[in-house]
């Protein structure tokens, strides 16, 4: 009992003790983590949804922008969804900015994360100077008007902007825009993890990835054996693996079933508390890891999903009051395209070669990611979730059925 509560205390302390961020920012990190799980579950419910890739801290900052443009009930509801109702207005925007500046610092983290944000308004809108100034300052937003009368070229212009902002990594955000009469937010991101210990670039070969039992695609797979945090949850038939990224400031946590099966079963278990439990059970072990070496390009329109998890006012044309954007009550949030290219690659820092050929790497556990898995990119310094997602269908050609 005593040991148990001590462990619980230590866990709590590791959550609370962070001095990197201000206390307001820590509150927002905490609520962005809840937002991550709510949003993930809401999206996973959707039929035909395959790969998922969401950055909770970037979604939080987009909500911050909506709060900045909102008034009365619309503004207070955004803050509730954001968990920012415990944070005073004068701290909300600067704290959200503080989080993003910290976690996206490429120099400190040795990780490539390019984030570009744009707010599009219909050609009739006049952006208020104050709003433009503050959304640039806190959220690094660009502003642009767009005319949807020629829809094809409007969509093309959006995709071209996203492509350019991500150095071509994200060539297409959307093929179409349904609701063209409101404010449209776009997050265009490129993320490339840089491993704490690199994979050897030659340890890559083509393997099959089982999207489901009867559908296999061919993907390049990278392999390495190292010492990693590993836990085998035998009650739930799944593996948990944590692989640190450069400077060990962040890590990728993989959650994968033993064998190919729909992710639904694991997703039912996937709560914040369960993930914390899994992480607390990790043990440093030799693990032979095989991961698809692929780039995931995923774009979600979060407008509807945010509406379903409580943001009902801003997305409703009849109710929305976003008059701090334009000075008039003439806008609602019609789209929020949240798009990322995530490149899983071999690159990282040189490995610790002193353990090669020693007992430390003997009899490794196998983590062979040839079927769908869930992952989280966790920032250790701020305790925030940089990404939550799942890889269900990697890019690759269908392989002939094997008997
Ligand atoms: C709306 O903008 C005005 C003027 O810039 C500002 O004083 C007010 O605080 C803003 N309202 C909200 C809810 O942010
Ligand atoms: C990023 O981190 C580096 C090294 O820790 C630091 O010198 C720099 O000021 C940081 N940049 C920002 C924008 O915070
Ligand atoms: C990470 O560090 C390595 C080695 O110092 C360097 O070559 C690489 O450019 C860095 N990458 C980023 C994104 O900072």
TrEMBL record:
Q: Which UniProt keywords apply?
A: Chaperone, Endoplasmic reticulum, Glycoprotein, Signal
Q: Where is the Serpin domain?
A: 37-394
**Subcellular locations according to the entry:** Endoplasmic reticulum lumen
Keyword Glycoprotein recorded = yes
Please tell me where this protein is predominantly located: endoplasmic reticulum
GO-annotated molecular function: serine-type endopeptidase inhibitor activity
One Gene Ontology BP term is:
collagen fibril organization
Is the keyword Signal in the record?
Answer: yes
The signal peptide here is: 1-17
Read off the Pfam families from this record.
Serpin (PF00079)
Q: Which SUPFAM superfamilies match?
A: Serpins (SSF56574)
This molecule's function is given as:
Binds specifically to collagen. Could be involved as a chaperone in the biosynthetic pathway of collagen.
* Family indicated by similarity: Belongs to the serpin family.
Q: What is this protein called?
A: Serpin H1
Instruction: Give the originating organism.
Output: Pygocentrus nattereri
